[in-house]
């Protein structure tokens, strides 16, 4: 089962690079690689995700409506963290990897729900 959502909007650049560095790679400080624009840096994200139990399928697609795009699917090999695969469509391979990794991390580690009584 595959899920494609529009809830996580990402654009290539420093903001996405910083999010990937913290949320996916676990960086605390230092220079942040250009994960979303450099395929070599993005491949480090793939390796990190594989170490966390995710597999990546990356495809170059074309449709008459959308033209060319990259389609990335992160599959949870353990299937205990996420009920379905995470898929994204982006204009570049590096951005597809980053966007997919961020969505996979969000699916595997959902933010706790806030209740009105919790807000003090």
Rough outline: globular
The run of helices and strands is EHHEEEH
CATH superfamily: Bacillus phage protein-like
Q: Kindly state the percentage of residues in helix.
A: 25-40%
Poorly predicted regions: 1-7
Tally of alpha and pi helices: 3
End-to-end separation in angstroms reads 39 Å
What would you report as the Rg, rounded to the nearest angstrom?
15 Å
Structural class: alpha+beta
Instruction: Give the strand order, joined by hyphens, for the main sheet.
Output: 1-4-3-2
Number of strands: 4
- The CATH architecture comes to 2-Layer Sandwich
By CATH, the topology is: Bacillus phage protein
- Largest sheet descriptor: 4 strands, mixed
- The CATH class turns out to be Alpha Beta
Number of domains: 1
Strand content: 15-25%
Mean pLDDT: 86
